[in-house]
# Entry
Amino acid sequence: METTKKDIRALSKEELQDFFKANDLPSFRGGQVYQWLWQKGVHDFDLMTNLSLEHRALLKTHFEIKHINIDVQQRSKDGTIKNAVKLHDNLVVESVLIPTAKRTTACVSSQVGCSLDCTFCATAALKRMRNLNADEIYDQVVAMDQQSKLYFQRPLSNIVFMGMGEPLMNYKNVLGAIQKITDTEALAMSPKRITLSTSGIPKMIRKMADDQVKFGLAVSLHSARQEVREKIMPFATKFPLQELKDALMHWHSKIKKQITFEYVVWEGINDQKEDIQSLVTLCKQIPSKVNLIQYNPIDTASMKQASPEVIEAYIQALTQNRIKVTYRRSRGEDIAAACGQLANKIDAIGKEVRNA
Ligand code: SAH
# Structure
């Protein structure tokens, strides 16, 4: 049956307070509801025990509580957990929890599918179905915080927006989720532990800077040469590197934090001296570090990771120029949870998730 009830989780704390006021009830009740929804994470009005039965009944006549459900959970040998997250309209996204000795990192999705066309990414083949709501993004984090406590006896330490979708194409809702993740009346995590990864949308990078965001920024660069980048990320024709560079300089001038460039090295694509030199030049212009990512092969691309010698040449050139570089090898070879492999193929055999 079609419901006319509103999703209560779409309301801000102020709107919840206004609702009570409009019903001639004290507005602090709205604050209590906010805490039940966001700090305690309840999905049932009857669990809001400091509200009277009448108040709960009032809420029930006006609202419903929409929330995600973890549909399938896959656990890798190394502890990595991939969740299939079912949304209220039965669409599915994936999120991944990655434990290491010191951290547990949640990799969250921001869209169902993706509208960008990176040739090396399995999510791109899904096309964009819709943006996730702020609470659908937030719920993934809460679910993985609970898994972290259950399986690794510690709360989540880091969050990366590196799951399905382009977070800057769903800016408002991603920021809404981060607001609750960091709100002391909700999950209360430090924004320093959050990294947003973007394929590089200059206008939105500028907007983030002007909004004075407190979280970290990673940019999926993969090439510092416009003609090469366009080949592997065709949407980049609309966002030339020069514009991206200007936007990143603006970001740095406002936020004062280093930018992380994510970079995969592929054979025959970006494995020449010129590629390395272009990256070094860019990194010297923009305060940044480089995160070399292992390529996780996907069905729809025949690309191949470059040899260890080429990767070593990148590391040497960057290091010689005092640019910080990390190279993380894949862990876990048994579930399809890797960067770029999130494609709702629950039973597929894949590699792992980077970035713990
Ligand atoms: N749209 C955002 C976030 C999602 S992708 C972005 O582009 O940053 C998260 C990271 O995985 C990006 O750095 C992306 O370039 C990388 N990635 C995508 N496909 C990959 C693959 N097959 N192997 C390794 N990394 C991949």
Confidence is low (pLDDT under 50) at residues 346-356.
